[in-house]
Design a protein that fits this description.
Helix content is 37%, strand content 21%. With 217 residues, it is of the alpha/beta class. It has two domains: 2-88, no CATH class; 92-209, Nucleotidyltransferase, domain 5 (2-Layer Sandwich), CATH 3.30.420. Strands 1, 2, 5, 6, 7 and 8 form a six-stranded mixed sheet that branches. Strands 3-4 form a two-stranded antiparallel sheet. A hairpin with a 2-residue loop joins β3 and β4 (136-137). α2 packs across α4. The longest helix has 14 residues, at 43-56. The protein is globular, with a radius of gyration of 21 Å.
Length: 217
């Protein structure tokens, strides 16, 4: 909670008053959304409050916020404190005994990319755009993401997000400087290129990258 309050203070998003859903509670809620992915939008706070209710005072009445209140609270919070928390706290967590996390003397950290659908609407469509389709645009706006992924734990650290029209190579250029000596970085054939390879090597990591089958070396 100390890190959450510090991030809220740094980004000037801490609650001045104490509404039903103050900013630090909303941050915990957003984190819980990722943990309870199969639970509904309104079901997550109910699960959290029921747990607190059971731990602290079973006689107290527990009332969970509704969807409108949650939406307004998330809009007030914004994305800035969440990004700061991610950049500060999300780090490789594997130890020597973690299965699949290392090879010989190296820590395995893969370079990988993907695309994520986000909720439809103008607020997301304008910054991220929709992917192309055979009949106009895609069903949902989409975010392009490239990150370093710790093998064995699947922790995504040092990620970069951008509009779906942004190429994965462009995002990889922002990610690769965060590699460190003592790591072995596998990557798919999509990322191979002389300039990108040199950039990754300059960070001090060892590389194991696939290349296309028809490449003439």
């Amino acid at each position: 909670m100390t890190a959450i309050r510090a991030a809220l203070a740094d980004t000037r998003t801490a609650s001045v008053r104490q509404p039903d859903l103050p900013a630090h509670v909303v941050v915990c809620y957003v984190i819980a959304l990722a943990i309870h992915m199969q639970t509904s939008y309104c079901g997550v706070p109910r699960r959290l409050l029921e747990g607190i209710h059971w731990l602290r005072d079973t006689s107290a009445h527990v009332k969970a916020a509704g969807r409108p209140g949650i939406s307004r609270a998330r809009a007030r919070l914004g994305w800035e404190p969440l990004r700061q928390l991610h950049d500060e706290l999300v780090k490789p967590v594997a130890v020597e005994t973690t299965q699949g996390a290392g090879y010989r003397q190296w820590r395995l950290v893969s370079l990988d990319g993907s695309a994520l659908d986000v909720a439809g609407g103008k607020a997301d469509e304008e910054p991220f755009g929709r992917p192309g389709a055979s009949r106009g645009g895609g069903a949902y706006p989409r975010i392009r993401v490239v990150a370093l992924v710790e093998s064995g734990t699947h922790v995504l650290s040092c990620g970069e997000l951008d509009a779906c029209g942004t190429g994965g190579i462009t995002l990889a250029k922002r990610v690769l400087p965060r590699l460190r000596p003592g790591t072995l970085c596998p990557a798919d054939r999509y990322f191979f290129g002389f300039k990108l390879w040199e950039q990754a090597r300059a960070a001090g990591a060892e590389l194991l990258w696939r290349v296309k089958w028809n490449m003439r070396l």
